[in-house]
Amino acid sequence: MDAFTKLTGVVAPIDRVNIDTDQIIPAVYLKSIERSGFQDALFSSWRYNADGSDNPDFILNKEGYRNANVLVAGANFGCGSSREAAVFALDANDIRAVVAPSYGDIFFNNCSKDGILPVVLDEAVVDGLRAKLYAEPGAQLTIDLETQILSGPDGTQHPFEVDPFRKHCLLNGLDDIQLTLEHEAEME
Questions:
Q1: Exposure check for the chain: N or C terminus, fewer CB within 10 A?
Q2: What is the rounded CA–CA span in Å between residue 149 and residue 137?
């Protein structure tokens, strides 16, 4: 997995709570055991019309948000089933971080194991960020994992907590397999 150190990127606000993994990637896309091929699956029921054309009302189809690397969403993002493909779909669309007040537990763990940083901030802070992002399409923020600081579009800094082990793995690009291979000599 790619290391996550510092990200400056375009941010897309999603003004919904309880976005479950079936909304992130509908079950119809879960026909493969591969970790790739999920680009069109991300939010497909919201992102596309019945004829397959882009839904102009969905945030990732709007000018200024199409190339988002970060999502700012409501509480309980990634709740629902344990489908790891939800994280793969985010990654396939170059989304490297999600900012929300809370997450579904399994989704939160899957993010960290697959190189996506789930940032937890106070709900009022997240609501304020989303309001600024709607007012400024294409706005960017910076997330520095080393210092654990998120800098909003206006420069306001928001510290966030990260479990030290998760931080180590993300900073060094270590997934479960790579962590195991660090002990290859011992296993031999």
A1: C
A2: 22
